[in-house]
Amino acid sequence: MLADMDSYFASVEQQSNPALRGIPVAVTGSGKRTVITTASYEARKFGVKTGMNKWEAKKLCPGLTFIAGSNDKYTYTCRKLSEIYSRYTSDVEVYSIDEAFLDITSSCSLFGSPLKIGELIRNEIKERFGLNATVGIGPNKLIAKLASDLSKPDGLMRVRPEDVTNILKVLAVEELWGIGRKLAAKLNSLRIYIAGELGRTSASFLRSHFGIIGERLKLMGMGIDDSPVTCDMRIAKSIGHSMTLSQDIRQENEIRAYILKLSEMVGQRARKHQLAGDVIKVTIRYRSFETFSRQLQIKTHTNDTHLIYNTAMEIIKKTELTEPVRLLGVGLSGLRETENPAQLPLLREYAGRRDLLRAVDNINEKYGDYTISWAACRPYRWRPSVISPAWRPKGIRNTRG
Hints:
- It contains 15 helices and 13 strands.
- It is of the alpha+beta class.
- The protein has 3 domains: 1-135, MutS, DNA mismatch repair protein, domain I, CATH 3.40.1170.60; 164-221, 5' to 3' exonuclease, C-terminal subdomain (DNA polymerase, domain 1, Orthogonal Bundle); 238-397, DNA polymerase, Y-family, little finger domain (Dna Ligase, domain 1), CATH 3.30.1490.
- The strands form 3 sheets. The protein has a 5-stranded mixed sheet with strand order 5-6-1-7-8. Strands 9, 10, 11, 12 and 13 form a 5-stranded antiparallel sheet that branches. A 3-stranded mixed sheet has the order 3-2-4.
- It starts with a strand and ends in a 34-residue tail after the last helix.
- The mean pLDDT is 87.
C-alpha cells in the first residue's frame, strides 16, 4: 500500500490558514530565486506546476497566492502521519516527506481487507488534519505506486495481481514509477511506447541499449517488483546538500565560502550517524541551467569537514567554469559505518581537529543548526528554506537541509 498525500505542502498551508482554502496557492522557498515546490489543486487547474518560476506561474494564474514554506509544519505532520500508519502495520517505509509504503500482508485479517485499511487510514487523516490522502494498493510497490497515481486526487484504488496485465497493455511507459522523461524518450526512440510492449521486449535487447538496468526495465514492463518495504532508514548510499545562490557568482572566494558551508553540512550529518565516505562529488549549475557533476575518490573514508572541503575545491580547480554559477552542491558517497568512533587518533593534529568538529556539532545540536559556523562562511550566511523531498522522520534523512 502507498499512502500519498495530495498537494502536501499547499494542503498543510491551507489547513493552517483558512483564508487560503479554495483559492490557488503555491508554496515556495523564502529566497529571492526560489521556485514553486508545490501547488494546490486550485492552482494546478491553471497549469501551475512544481519547479516553475514565480513569474511563469503568475502569468498562468494571475490570482495565485505565494506562501513561503514552513518546514516545521511539514515535518511535524509527517511524523504524526507515520504514527497513524504504524497502527495498521509495523512494516512502514516513509519513502518521502509525503509518501509512505505499508506492507499490510500480515495485518489484513485484523482490519477486514486491504481496501478497508486504506479507507480507515484516509478517514483518520482527514478527520485529524483535514488533509486528503490517496491510497494505492497492489501486489508490490511498483503497482501500489501506479494505483495511487491512477486514482489521484483523494482516491482509493486496489490493483489485483490478475488485473496487472490488462492495465499495462494500455499504460504509457512514462507512467511507470522510475521512468522519467529522458528514459521514456529513449524508449520511444526504440518504438517502445506502452508498458506492455516494454514487458514483451527481450532482456538482451534492453541490456544492449540501457546496460545493467535493461533487465530491470523489462520486469517493470511486466509489473514485477521484488523490492521490500524497508523500515531501516539509517542505511543510505550517499549524503548530499545543494543550494541555489541568491545571485550568480564567479569569484573563487565566494565559491570557496559556499563549498565550505556545504561541506560542513555534509560532514556534520555523516558524523552524527557515524558514517564515513571515500567519494566526494561537486554539482554545479550555471546561469543557463546547464547542470553537471564531478567526483573524486580519496584514499581513506572520512567525515571530516575540511577533508571534504579540500577535495571539493580540488575538483572545482580542475573544472573550467564557463558561466556564472547559480547552484552548488557537495555530496559524500561510498559510505560505511565508522568502525570505532571513540578510538583516539594517533596524531595530535587529527585529535585536535576531531575535538573541534565534535565541539561544533555539540553546540549546533543543542542550540540549533548554524548557531556556530566557520568564519569564512559568515559573509555568505545561508539557511535552507525548502525541505528536501528525501526528508525522513528517522535516520540520516532527518535533516533540515
